[in-house]
Structure formats: C-alpha cells, structure tokens
Protein: NADH:ubiquinone oxidoreductase subunit NDUFA12
Organism: Sphingomonas alba
Amino acid sequence: MGWLANAFTWWNGASWGTSITTRRHGREVGRDEAGNVYFQHKDNPARRWVIYAGNNDGSVVPPGWQSWLRGTIDDLPEKGLPTRRTWEKAPIANLTGSGEAWVPSGSLRGLGERPATTGDYSAWTPDEA
C-alpha cells in the first residue's frame, strides 16, 4: 500500500510525477541528516527542490538547506556557510499540533491552573437608551 499511496499523494514523499520529473531533469546535490534529498535542475541551476524523507513539512529542512533552496546562498551549505558554533542548538521541526507543542499554563491542554482574576476587571455592558 505504501507505493500505491505515493502514486496519488504528495504529502508523504514524492508522487510518481515528481519522481519522474526529478529523474529526467534533476541532479542530486546533497542530503541532510534527516534523509531529505536536494536536487538542482540540470539545465537551469536556479531551480532547486527537495524530496522529503517523511511527511512533506518545510520545517524539517535545516536552515542551511533552506538558504540554498531559496537562492540566498549559491554554494551548498557545507561550503557556503560557516560551521555550526558549539553554543548553537540544532534546529527542530515545527511541533504545532503534536503532543510536544508548547502550551501556556492557562490553556485547557496545559497542566497548570489558570490564575484567578484579580478583581479589577468589570465586564462592559451597553447603556440602555
């Protein structure tokens, strides 16, 4: 069922159409630590794209590869960017909608208690005419 799903979907890797176009017109230029594969058009190097290793989520593309995809840097990230500093954290994907997403303490999903009102709030009521 996995190969059949890729025939008609784009959100979990490359569809057949994308795979065929990539083989005909693309040249693989690199891979990142998440397994995403990056391509450049054989005839037009300004056209660049990625085939994701899992779900198609742009937040899983590391910042260096984002810069390359958008044309901010011409060289591949290993050559066009300085090495990561020891104090820099590794990028993480967008966690919105997952169980690891941040929620404020007063949220219904949060574990904390919502603070009580301070008593300085009074609800607005319209003046009767």
Remarks:
- The chain has four helices and three strands.
- The first strand starts at residue 26 and ends at 31.
- The radius of gyration is 23 Å.
- Residues 2-80 form one domain.
